[in-house]
Amino acid sequence: MAPRKGKKNQGGAGDDGGHAGEKRKTPYRAEPNDNYAANMKKVFSERMFILKVTDSGEYDDLARTFSIKGSSGSTYTVKISNNLKGSCSCESAMFRPPTCKHMLYVLTFALKAEEPLRWQHGFLNTELEALFANLETYPLTSAQVSSDPSLTDGTPKSVNMDCPVCYKTCGDNTDVTVCCTSCGHYAHKICFDVRGEASSG
């Protein structure tokens, strides 16, 4: 199933995908690397869980760090930043770089990146700003809750929204869903259980 589209996140203007006044730190890639297709097949077929998202940028850096539980049950750290290539703590990223299924999962579902941006080895600030604007972070922060009373009224939201754990839609009718009695968001039951186990552990 294709991810819900956010803002348009193509490579940008020009043959190199650059924007006026900003230079890409790594060469623009018009074509994906050799393992991209195989990894994307896993992205769409395997179940992964994003347990935590952290704003890890320092000073003028743009960065988000994701704690993601893969299909094997192991938890990895994925970082998307403007200061380095996307990184992941899994063995595949270390020994078969530059990308792995965990990085591509984050880019595809959590950040709503489209091709060719999805297979780039580095990002412009303007690209990251648009990607991070698409990101819905959970668990909800106190600032989010205080600014939007509907997040604590317990009223069920649309079942067609993304699951707050796997970031795939809840409205595909293939998985059992549950509704949080506090914020009203739907989640896949298996995702809800995994998030609960991670929080209690």
From TrEMBL:
Chain intervals for the UniProt region annotation (Disordered): 1-33
InterPro entries attached to this UniProt entry: Znf_SWIM, Zswim2
GO MF annotation: an example: zinc ion binding
Domain of life: Eukaryota
Keyword Zinc-finger on entry: yes
Bias (Basic and acidic residues) ranges: 16-25
Record's keyword annotation contains Metal-binding: yes
This protein's UniProt keywords: Metal-binding, Zinc, Zinc-finger
Occurrences of domain SWIM-type (ranges): 76-111
PROSITE patterns: ZF_SWIM
Name of this chain's protein: SWIM-type domain-containing protein
